[in-house]
Amino acid sequence: MKAMLYHEPGGPEVLQYTDVADPEPGPGDVVIDVGATALNRLDVVQRNGWFQMPGFAYPHIAGMDVAGTVAEVGSEVDGVAVGDRVVVDPSLAGVADNSKLAGMG
User: HSE-up of 70 (CA within 13 Å, CB side)?
Assistant: First the structure.
């Protein structure tokens, strides 16, 4: 799948549009086929190196706000099914064509 990521802090020049491995859902995870994502202020702040959320690590996939369709669900996930359309604010996950997100209840 494709992702916009960066390996170090900096301006837009550090962004790389590249191939990354497809995610595999764990028992409590959901894989979303991302239809749209947005870069918000926190993405810019983190990319510039001004502030990182706890758990932030390089390389980091840019994009936090997500809309898409559930593609896979882990064995312990309930309340969401393959094919459901969802809007997600994963805060730290970073997104790509498909993104793995931990279930939140």
Answer: 20
CA distance 60 to 103: 20
For residue 35, which phi and psi values (nearest 5 degrees)? -95, -30
Q: Where are the chain's structural domains? A: 2-102
Residue 36 tokens read as 């749209």
70 and 81 in contact (C-beta within 8 Å)? yes
pLDDT digits (tens, 9 = 90+) for 63-96: 878 889 999 999 998 889 999 999 886 654 555 4
Give the architecture (CATH level 2) of 2-102: Alpha-Beta Complex (3.90)
Round to whole Å and give the CA distance between 33 and 21: 14
